[in-house]
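tool_log.txt
---
The assistant was asked to compare two proteins side by side. It first ran the structure predictor on the initial sequence, then on the second. Raw inputs and outputs are pasted verbatim so the downstream comparison step can read them without reformatting.
(1)
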Amino acid sequence: MPSDTKARIQAVARELFVQQGVQNTSLRQISERLGITKPALYYHFSSREDLVRSIVQPMVEDIERFVTTREPGDARELLKDYFDVIWRHREVLVMLMRELETLGYTDMAERMFSWRRRLIMLLFGPGVTPEQQIRATVALGGMSDCSVEYAHLPVEEVKPTAVESAAAALGLP
């Protein structure tokens, strides 16, 4: 469990990263907002990249847990549950999508493709056709995009339409 100071640093950094981007946010801005010295911030995080990784890590663990423990079953339930996971981490997704180069030093791009491949297998099974792969890519990508594009709206306004649209893209009844 992170210390209070560490958690406060992460919260302020996440807010600033979402507002102005990772590259446009200095450690000085974060330390000033918190009323601590830059050396105090460096005590907890050795670099901006280290701080970004610490903010992204809970999302990585949550999605990894979701895709590795989930069993094939009701596709609509999978979509609803997956939407809940990505919605919970929408600020981090906004932060990552705002500056795609951040994906590079967080190793997220390959992870995201791996998660998508696992989710497609959960939705369609091992004999998935290219058409099903394309449909699932559109469905899952669209839901992720909705969690980023409409992060400012209430979940009750976004989730039903995002999940139904994903189900339609998958050709679910």
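(2)
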Amino acid sequence: MPDAALSQALQEAYASAPSEQIILHTLELRHPAFVDGLGQTTAIRVVRDTADLDARLESSATLNGGEMVRFIAMGFELDLPPVDTLPVPEITVTLDNVSREIVRHLDAAAESQAVIVVTYRPYLSTDLQGPQMDPPIHLVLTEVEADIFRITGRARMLDVGNKAFPGISYTAKTFPGLTR
């Protein structure tokens, strides 16, 4: 079954594997504790390639939506979630040769109760004006382990089965008419 989120160009690239078009896999890790030297919220952005990548994010991106951003070249492993009947698909994400900056951000995140969100975006080398999957895949990173060579974590799709429905809590405080 085709994935409706994939662009037509990416579907063709997967199907025909042309040598002049390279699929560039990117990851973005976000957490409220990830801040830059100026105290501004930032994200860790990496591309599985040998050179850094400047590409435009989708307009609905949480940080820097619609802007050109830099993805740092880094080796990583990621198997996309299977189409399966499991309640919450899980995958393993491994980043190789991580920098001190990434370890510093992850240490800051470990002291917080907030989750690390991982966003996967594929780009085509011939079109960097936006990801070739809209919406991109968002995962929650858990069980992070780090050593001097790599960082490994389990990532899972947002657990929709355990979310409250409806998403609004009808309380007397937010809906005063309920007390009458």
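---
observation on (2): The CA atoms of residues 77 and 94 lie 5 Å apart. The beta strands are 23-35, 41-47, 53-56, 68-73, 76-78, 90-96, 116-124, 137-146, 150-157.
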